[in-house]
Each structure stands twice: as C-alpha cells, then as structure tokens.
Amino acid sequence: MVPMLENYVKKILSSKVYDLAIETPLSHAPRLSNRFDTQIWLKREDMQSVFSFKIRGAYNRMARLSDAERERGVITASAGNHAQGVAAGAQHLKVRATIVMGKNTPSIKVNAVRDRGANVVLFGDNYDAAAGRAKELAERDSLIYIPPYDDVDVIAGQGTIGLEIMNQHSEPLDAIFVPVGGGGLIAGITAYVKYLYPKTKIVGVEAEGSASLHAAMAAGRRVKLPAESLDLFADGVSVAQVGAEPFKIARRYVDEVVVANVDEICAAIKDVFEDTRCMSEPAGALAIAGMKLYLAAHPEIRSAVAILSGANVNFDRLRHIAERAEIGESREAILAVQIPEKRGSFLQFARALGSRSVTEFNYRYADADNAYIYVGLRTESSADRSIVAAGLDDRGYQVFDMTDNEAAKVHVRHMVGGRRPTPVGEILFRFEFPERPGALLQFLRGLGTRWNITLFHYRNHGSAWGRVLVGFDAEKQDGVILTKHLKKIGYRFWREEGNEAYDLFLR
C-alpha cells in the first residue's frame, strides 16, 4: 500500500489546483483551544472563491482534459459545492458545463452555479438520483463526467490541503479531523499525511444518517446506505456509499471515524462563528463537531486541526441551526414538568429553579388537578441536565426529559396550547419529505381524503427536509391499514406511539 501513497504524494505535489484555488490559512481557534485545553486550528477552506474546498479536486481533474475533451464539454452531479468547483473551473477554462443537482439543493448553491455560466438541471431528491441522471446525460450527449470524489486526480487535488497543513504548522500534529461524504477529501489528506507523518492521527467525521464510511469500516467492505433514510441536514456530505478509490486508502490508514448528530453539528456551527465570525454550512462544521466528541474522550491529544470545509449556507437555515445549537452543546435542557393546577404554582416552580436561566416556557390549562409545562433551561453539560431533573424530582415534581425527543424539539414546542376532542381517536405520525417548492402540497395530495386529519404542524426550517407532525382520526386497530396507505406516498415516516411530549401536551 505504501507505493500507492507515494504515487498520490507525487500527484499532490504536481497538482494544478493553484491555477484557480488559493492556499487557505490555518486559523487558531482560541475559544475551542481553551475549552479543551488543546491547541486547535481550523483549516479555512471556506475562504476559497467558491467558499468550499471542492474547487481543488474539480479543477485538478478538469485541467488535465485534452483539447478534444474540453470541446465536448463536462457534466457532473453534486449537492452543491462540487458543482461550484466544476462551474468555476469550466468558466476559467472556457468549457461548457452541465450540473445535475437535487431538487432540494439549497438555493444559494444553485444560484452560485448558474452565476458562473453553467447549465443547471434539477433532478431527484438526493445525490445518488442526481448522479444517475448525470451519467445518463453524459452518455447521451458525449459529455465528460467529472466525478466529485471517486477519482485519483480529484483525490490528489483535495490532498493539497494536507500538504498545506503540514507546511503551515511548524510542529508535528497529534490529529487532523476531516469531514466525510464520498471520501475524496479524507483520502487525499490521508495519503499525504500518513506517507510523510505516519504518527499524526486522521479522524473522519460523518453525519448521523449518512455514515457510509463508518459502516464500511465496521463491515470491512463498502456498504450502501438506503437513499430514503439519508439525513440531508448536512447536505454536502449526504452520500449513500463511500467511493471505491477513497476506501482503498481509508480502510488502511484512517485511524477512526466519528459520527455527529444534528444538534452537535449545530453547536459546532456556533463554535466556528464564535472563533472566526464565519457562518459555516452544516457539512462545513462537521469536522469540528466530531473533533469535540473525540477530544472529550481523548485528553491526550494536545494539538489538532479540523477542516472547515465550506460556508454555503442559506440564510433561512440559521433559524433552525440556532434553535438546536444550545442542545447540541448540552447548554440547554428541554423538560416537561407536572405542576399542581393552583394559584402560586408558577412562582413555586420558579423558586425551585433558583437562578437558572429559562430559555422557553409554554403552558396550557389541562385539568383541575395538574398542569404540564414545557420548559427550556440553560445548563452547563449533560451531567448538569441530570442534576436539574434530579433536583426538581427531589422537590416533588414529576419530570420528563425531552432533550432528545425529536418530535418535541421540532414540533410540540410550537404547538403547546391545544388538545384533541375527547371522543376522537387519534394516531400520530412524524414525516420528513424533501423540501422544495410545492412539496407540502404534494405531501397533502399523497395523504388523500380517506383519513380525517386531527392535528397538523409544519414549519419551514430552511433545511433540506420538510418536517410534519400529523394526527389522524383513527382508532388503534386502524393503525396497520393506515400505515400501509402512508407507505405508498413514498416519504419516510415514524409512528409516534407512546411519545411523552404528545401525551403531556397534545392528547
């Protein structure tokens, strides 16, 4: 395997990326460094002209096209950042470019590609669907396909980041944290760093729901995740299967793969902002989220670099990110608390909380004896969250921890204030569908008119998925028939049976 790394190092050293890309700075992150008692630097790929590292690999591949190939034009599929890299490369080389992107790609990325003169084709709801269409068009129109990650020249282009890091940092590094989608970035960085600095750990970071490398490492072979279950919050890394060429390197030389959830990614976006004043996209902050998880368990790491890989985020997504950031940092607890339905109960409860800061407080009269309040509290850590709950329990309050309850965080916190009529039977489902114009109407058409809707909550979070909570007028025995009907719609869903947030506030 070492000869393969040596070949990659040669390709990295002879890369043509600097015709178009820049050498990005390695920025010290003082707040993160102080928090983890580790010297932490961020590799600022958000400062490229397309606000992402993807320009490196895309241009390195395109710069090697023959004159005849350039005449034919190029095509690719992308969740957005590779698309911008190809569009920028095509503009620089004066080559026609067609980009196939999912219909739910953030508009900031679609518009950026069009602004560079590329022809955009919107197709499908995820990367794999777009890639399949791009390959069909490539064959039909004799276009040259530019792979986003599974290509040696693309990998070598991304590997120049590893070269820059080791040149910019004067002393050996303990670890480098790299976001993983298809694997081109981690393969390139790993090839360079492990060949010349084998003691430096390379840690991949994937988003929960799109952890194809983590699954492949565990299985010892590439694993394809179900496309319908991919988490598209971090859309830039939402790939069902790690590339074949990247996996050849990763399976042997990547030290570990960490998986981060949505809340942890949102917290990392806030961390990046506090240290740099840069607003990263979810995939861009993914490596920072994983780094935080890893450093918490490995205090022996004294110096680390995380790749800040991109900053192409729609402004309207910031609302959703801000809501989840505090939870991801364990700085907010979401609790449901039963209090007596009598005068003075609110004041007594506030006294029980003491000086803790309240971030949210929702209430509606329930019955003559008891009330339930939905409350958000500032906390210092997950352990502190447990202390809060235990303290309230000691004072006689019944406490339900909703911090990890997705339906509670996304829907119920905006709905406290109404209950179903007593005679109505109700079955609750939570849906996710690709967010794009007309998607909600399409969803409602799919539901049809057979089942009466008793509860409905939809809120646009500016993210790639639309999220809906729906109650149906149905008895428990109707659940099997209803579930079969809902499966025909084609959207992923969960039956929220026994969800405490629903039972306490909406039932």
How would you characterize the overall build of this protein?
- The protein is an alpha/beta fold and 507 residues long.
- It folds into 4 domains: 225 residues, Rossmann fold, CATH 3.40.50; 91 residues, 3-Layer(aba) Sandwich (Rossmann fold); 75 residues, Biosynthetic Threonine Deaminase, domain 3 (3-Layer(aba) Sandwich), CATH 3.40.1020.10; 86 residues, Biosynthetic Threonine Deaminase, domain 3 (3-Layer(aba) Sandwich), CATH 3.40.1020.10.
- 41% of the residues lie in helices and 21% in strands.
- The protein has 20 helices and 18 strands.
- The strands form 4 sheets. The chain has a 6-stranded mixed sheet, sandwiched between helices.
- Helix 9 links the parallel strand 7 and strand 8.
- The longest helix has 17 residues.
- The mean pLDDT is 89.
Walk me through the topology:
Elements: H1 2-13, E1 26-28, H2 30-36, E2 39-44, H3 54-62, H4 67-72, E3 74-78, H5 81-93, E4 97-101, H6 107-115, E5 119-122, H7 127-141, E6 144-145, H8 152-168, E7 175-179, H9 184-196, E8 201-207, H10 212-219, H11 244-253, E9 256-260, H12 262-276, H13 286-297, E10 303-308, H14 318-328, E11 332-340, H15 345-353, E12 358-363, E13 370-378, H16 382-394, E14 398-401, H17 406-410, E15 426-434, H18 439-447, E16 453-458, E17 465-473, H19 479-487, E18 492-495, H20 500-505
Parallel strand pairs: 2-10, 3-4, 3-6, 4-5, 7-8, 7-10, 8-9
Antiparallel strand pairs: 1-2, 11-13, 11-14, 12-13, 15-17, 15-18, 16-17
Helix pairs in contact: 1-8, 1-9, 3-5, 3-8, 5-6, 8-9, 9-11, 12-13, 12-14
